[in-house]
Every structure is written in structure tokens, then in C-alpha cells.
């Protein structure tokens, strides 16, 4: 499973990318507002630093505007994936952009039936928002299981990109349910490396070694 970082802040992206565990980046207008530097500059820095797909979202809500924006956004770099919202216009725009060979990530997906439409439209990625469903009292990860089943039933190649990730458990379950990608906010990404027993175990190993006065090998 691939891991993307869900941030438009170049410092956060570059720090996470340096671990070698990050395969791509997703942004959205809310994250752009929190980039910390002008959005254009942030995107240029991220594209320069990261080898892998970078999702940039359109702001238009009608399909002609989405298509025009998409055509312009890909000029930022050959790894740009145009993020299109799940609406009737978004579905129309996705088909046109795909016809032109432009990669699309269909975002704001909250159901298996919306994900089916994204796949039928030819989207490269579908972004189901699990955390926001959880917030509303629905099991977000169940949708991931269902989308996997639905896509496998028909051989759709659209990648399931789990979005609105709020916890390490979301990442863990993404892998169990066969998602292709999880896009992770930096706060959750760094927690993936941690376990209280990893920390305690390391401390104990080093303490035992030191106390016994063992000669180090190197
Ligand atoms: O990139 C879209 C998604 O990950 C947003 O997450 O936490 O705002 O629901 P959140």
C-alpha cells in the first residue's frame, strides 16, 4: 500500500518524504489555506521535492471551468493529478480530462455508489473520506471494504485512496481492507513509527548492555 502525505505545507511534506515512506502528496483548498507560505510557492516547492503523484484541486464548480483549470494545473509538473469534486459536473469533467490523458483524483466521496461512478468515469484515484463519516456516526472504514469489493467485482483499476484519515488505526485498516493508498496528515504519519513497547524495549536493551559493561562490537 502506498502512503501519501495530506498537506500543502512544503516543510511538513519534505520532512515526511525524507523518511522514504511517502509515495505522493494530496492537497485541498483548506490545506492550501494553511500552507504557511503563498500557495503557488508551496506547490512549486512540493513538486520539486517529491517524486510521485501530487493532487491539486480545482476550485471551479461547473465542468467547463474544472476542465480548463485541470489543463492549467498539469503545467505545474508532469506528476500533477487533478483533484475533482464528486458532483455531476465533476463526473463530466473527469471523463473529458481522462480523454486528454490527464490524471484525475475524484474527491469528496462518501459512499460506495459515488465511488462506482468515479470508477466508471475513469478516475485514476477515488478519495473516500473516512474520518468525516466517522464524525457523523457512520463507520468510514466499512465504505473502504465495500468499495474494494465493488471494484474487484468488475475489475475497475481506479485506485482507492483513503482520505480524511484521523488515526493510525485508519491506516492499519486501510491495509487490511486492501486500499491502494492512504493519505495521511503529518500528525498521524509520525505516530506510525511509534509504539510504547518499541520505546521501552529500546531503553531496556541499551540499559542492560551498558550495565553489564559489554564491549561494543564497533
Ligand atoms: O485531502 C482530503 C482529506 O484528507 C481531508 O481530511 O481531516 O479535513 O476530513 P479532513
From TrEMBL:
Recorded GO MF terms: aldehyde-lyase activity
Subcellular location: Cytoplasm
NCBIfam families: fsa_talC_mipB
InterPro entries: Aldolase_TIM, TAL/FSA, Transaldolase_3B/F6P_aldolase, Transaldolase_AS, TSA/FSA_arc/bac
GO cellular component: cytoplasm
Keyword Translocase: no
SUPFAM superfamilies, per database record: Aldolase
Chain's gene name: fsa
Record's keyword terms, sorted: Cytoplasm, Schiff base
BP terms from Gene Ontology: carbohydrate metabolic process
Protein species of origin: Candidatus Dojkabacteria bacterium
PROSITE patterns tied to this protein: TRANSALDOLASE_2 (PS00958)
Name under which the protein is recorded: Fructose-6-phosphate aldolase
Gene3D superfamilies to which the protein is assigned, alphabetical: Aldolase class I
